[in-house]
UniProtKB/TrEMBL annotation:
Keyword terms of this UniProt record: Heme, Iron, Membrane, Metal-binding, Monooxygenase, Oxidoreductase
Gene that this sequence comes from: LOC115343271
Cross-referenced Gene3D superfamilies: Cytochrome P450
GO cellular component, one term: mitochondrial inner membrane
Species whose genome carries this gene: Aquila chrysaetos chrysaetos
Listed PANTHER family: CYTOCHROME P450, CYTOCHROME P450 FAMILY 27 SUBFAMILY C MEMBER 1
InterPro entries tied to this protein: CYP11_CYP27_families (IPR050479), Cyt_P450 (IPR001128), Cyt_P450_CS (IPR017972), Cyt_P450_E_grp-I (IPR002401), Cyt_P450_sf (IPR036396)
Name used for this protein in its record: Cytochrome P450 family 27 subfamily C member 1
Length: 373
C-alpha cells in the first residue's frame, strides 16, 4: 500500500508540482502575520507562534492531500473549518492521552472502558474528517467524467482515478497522513523560528543568501531550493536539536551482531536519536545551533549523517518528508517569512523542550515580526 503513495511523493521532484499551491498558503500565512501583529500594542508580536504554524501546516497539508483549501488562515475562518480545526485539535490532544489504550488487553476494556472508548472516538473523528474531503473529491471527479471532461489533479485525484488502492485504504492513508503531517511540521517551524530569532547573525545570512541567489521579486518554487543550501542546513540543524520524534523503534528481522553483541531475531529495539543528535562523537559543539556544519566546510563541521535521523530510515521512514521540506523551505524564501526580521518577544521565557510522544516547545513562543529595513 505504501509503495503506491511513495511513488507519488518520495522525491523532491514529485512534490515540486505542489509548489504553487503551497505558495498560495504561504501568502495567506504572511497576511495572517500582518493581521495578528496589528492587533498587539507593539504592532509586531505574534503570541504563541505554534498556533499560527499549526494552521499553516494544516492548510498546507490539506492543499496537497485533499487538493482543496480549508480557510484555516482566513480572518473569518469558515464555520465548518472552525469545527474541523476544533475537532482535530481535540483529536490530537485525545490521541496523545489515549495512545496507550491500544495496549490495554481486550478483557480489561469493559472494566476500564474510558481510554479505549476515547481512543476509538478520536480515530472515528479523524476518519470522518478525511472521509468528507475524499468524498467531495470523488463527487467532483464523477461530475467531470459525466460531462466528458479530462480529469487532472494531484495525489488524491491520482489515487481515486487509478484505483490502485480501495476507497477504504484511501480514507485510512489520508487520515494517517493528516495526523502525521500537521503537528510535526508546525513544531519544527516553531523551533526553527525560535532558533533564528535567537541567532540574528544566522538569520541575516539566510536572508542574504535568498536576496543574492534569487532574482528580485521572483516567486520561489521548489526548483530554487538547491540554490539555497543554508536554508536546508537550518532545517537539518533544527531537527538535530529538536527532533519532533525523539525516539523510534524496530523489531529485528534476523539475528544481528552489533559491536560484538548478538541481538536475536525478533528483539524490540528502541532507538533514541535525540541522544545521538547531542553526542560529541557525532557532532562537534553538539549543543550549539550551527547550521553551517551541514555545509561541510572543514573538519570542525564534520557530521555523522546517521547521528541525526529525524525522518527515520529505511522502508518505514517518513513518507511525508518531501512534503514537510517543501512547506518549510518555501516559507523562508524571498517575499515570505524573512521579509520580516524575527525577534523573540520579551514575554517569551527561555523555551525548553518537553515530550509527550512528540518533542514540543515547553511554553509559548511569542515572536516579534518587525519589518526588515
Ligand atoms: C518536520 C516534519 C516531520 C517529521 C520530523 C516527521 C518524522 C517522522 C518519523 C521519525 C517517522 C517514523 C519513521 C521511521 O520509523 O523510520 C514518520 C513516519 C511517518 N510520517 Fe512523518 N514527519 C514529518 C512530517 C510528515 C508529513 C508532512 C507527513 C504527511 C503529509 C508525514 C507522514 C508520515 C507517515 C504516514 C508516517 C508513517 C510511515 C510508515 O509507517 O510507513 N510526516 N515521520
Amino acid at each position: 500500500m505504501r509503495s503506491v503513495l511513495r511513488q507519488k511523493i518520495l522525491k523532491p521532484k514529485d512534490v515540486a508540482v505542489y509548489s504553487e499551491g503551497v505558495n498560495e498558503v504561504i501568502s495567506d500565512l504572511i497576511k495572517r502575520i500582518h493581521t495578528l501583529r496589528s492587533q498587539e500594542d507593539d504592532g509586531e508580536t505574534v503570541t504563541n507562534v505554534n498556533n499560527l504554524f499549526f494552521k499553516y501546516s494544516m492548510e498546507g497539508v490539506a492543499t496537497i492531500l485533499y487538493e482543496c483549501r480549508l480557510g484555516c488562515l482566513e480572518n473569518n475562518v469558515p464555520q465548518q473549518t472552525v469545527e474541523y480545526i476544533e475537532a482535530l485539535e481535540l483529536m490530537f490532544s485525545m490521541f496523545k492521552t489515549t495512545m496507550y489504550a491500544g495496549a490495554i488487553p481486550k478483557w480489561l476494556r469493559p472494566l476500564i472502558p474510558k481510554p479505549w472508548r476515547e481512543f476509538c472516538r478520536s480515530w472515528d473523528g479523524l476518519f470522518k474528517f478525511s472521509q468528507i474531503h475524499v468524498d467531495n473529491k470523488l463527487k467532483a471527479i464523477q461530475s467531470q467524467l459525466d460531462q466528458g471532461e479530462e480529469v487532472n489533479g494531484g495525489l488524491l485525484t491520482y489515487l481515486l482515478v487509478s484505483k490502485e488502492l480501495t476507497l477504504e485504504e484511501i480514507y485510512a492513508n489520508m487520515t494517517e497522513m493528516l495526523l502525521a503531517g500537521v503537528d510535526t511540521t508546525s513544531f519544527t517551524l516553531s523551533w526553527a523560528t525560535y532558533l533564528l530569532a535567537k541567532h540574528p547573525e544566522i538569520q541575516q545570512r539566510v536572508h542574504e543568501e535568498i536576496v543574492n541567489k534569487l532574482g528580485k521579486d521572483q516567486v520561489p518554487l521548489a526548483h530554487d531550493v538547491p540554490k539555497l543550501p543554508l536554508i536546508r542546513a537550518v532545517l537539518k540543524e533544527t531537527l538535530r536539536l529538536y527532533p519532533v520524534l525523539p525516539g523510534n523503534g524496530r523489531v529485528t528481522q534476523k539475528d544481528l551482531i552489533v559491536g560484538g553483541y548478538l541481538i536475536p531475531k525478533g528483539t524490540q529495539l528502541a532507538l533514541c536519536h535525540y541522544t545521538t543528535s547531542y553526542s560529541e562523537e557525532n557532532f562537534s559543539m553538539a549543543n550549539e545551533f550551527r547550521p553551517e556544519r551541514w555545509l561541510r566546510k572543514d573538519n570542525l563541521d564534520r557530521v555523522d549523517n546517521f547521528g541525526s535521523i529525524p525522518f527515520g530510515y529505511g522502508i518505514r521512514s517518513c513518507i511525508g518528508k518531501r512534503i514537510a521540506e517543501l512547506e518549510i523551505h518555501l516559507h523562508y524564501k524571498k517575499k515570505n517569512i524573512l521579509n520580516f526580521e524575527i525577534k523573540i518577544s520579551p514575554k517569551t521565557k527561555p523555551v525548553h523542550a518537553k515530550t509527550h510522544g512528540l518533542l514540543t516547545p515547553g511554553n509559548s513562543i511569542d515572536v516579534r515580526f518587525s519589518d526588515r529595513k
